[in-house]
Amino acid sequence: MKITKIQTTVSSKYKTAAKFFIAAVSSLLPLQAGKDCFVKSMQKEIPIVIDKLDKKFSQVLLKDLQTIENINTRGGITHCYSDSSLVVLKNRLVESKIKTEYIHPIDTAIKPYIPSTGQFGSIRPFGRLHLGIDIYPRLYGRKPKKPVPVVSVSDGIVVSVKKSPDNDYKNIIANNIKIMSPDGKIYSYDHLGRQNDYKLEKYYPLRDLGTIVNCGDTLGYVGKTGETEIWHLHFSVEDLKIKKEQENNPIWKKLYSKYTDFATPRGQVDPLDNEKAGKISDYLKQYRVDKGPKVDYLDKL
Predict the structure, then answer these.
(1) Which CATH class is domain 55-287?
(2) Domain boundaries in the chain?
(3) What's the CA gap between 128 and 112, in Å, rounded?
């Protein structure tokens, strides 16, 4: 930067002030090397952080995804995205770096709890394994006096829906909804209630596939649909990377051949395990009343 001479008519007092001003400005001006460094740093990719999912953005996330119908061995029909589409959606969500927050699926004010038999890996009838956690809103799984809302633990997109018919007198098919979060994990809510469980109460029908859900949105009520007499929420966390490992694991193949739907590899991880399930485990652990060692029969898998 070229500095012009200060006129001699300026008093010595102002000359001194001008010199200090010029020196200060010159010290702030970048040298050539500094300029190159600055330009180089600007060429780095700056991640765009999106505060919330919105409908317009979801059209980009869901573009070209394949939707399918799965019919399980008990006749339940699940509307969902294909396995390959789930991987694509996960990558899009994670790469978008959408901010997400977490919340309890059931209000802690009513003191819901996880029974010792409701832990991940505990034994179920006929020797099958429990691949989620059970949250009871009332002691011994009795019917709540009033409907207990189940809310979404995070923002996300509905990636799977299975609806229990009202005339399912044998109670074979459970209401289930799965939501993929911006963190890439899938949160599954099972045994949700039917419309006729409580008279004169507002009912929340299951969301449609591809619907945006915000953290804290009501998904339904605690119910007992699908081969259970216990009023509870079966909550599970699924990781697509773990799913791939399970599909190639001979023990999981054996479990599936024996228990079919009850042991289908879906990437199930212990929701209370912070390393595997992530931040949501901090919230779910508050439901634990049994502080003893966790019973887990999947340690060898």
Answers:
(1) mainly beta
(2) 55-287
(3) 25
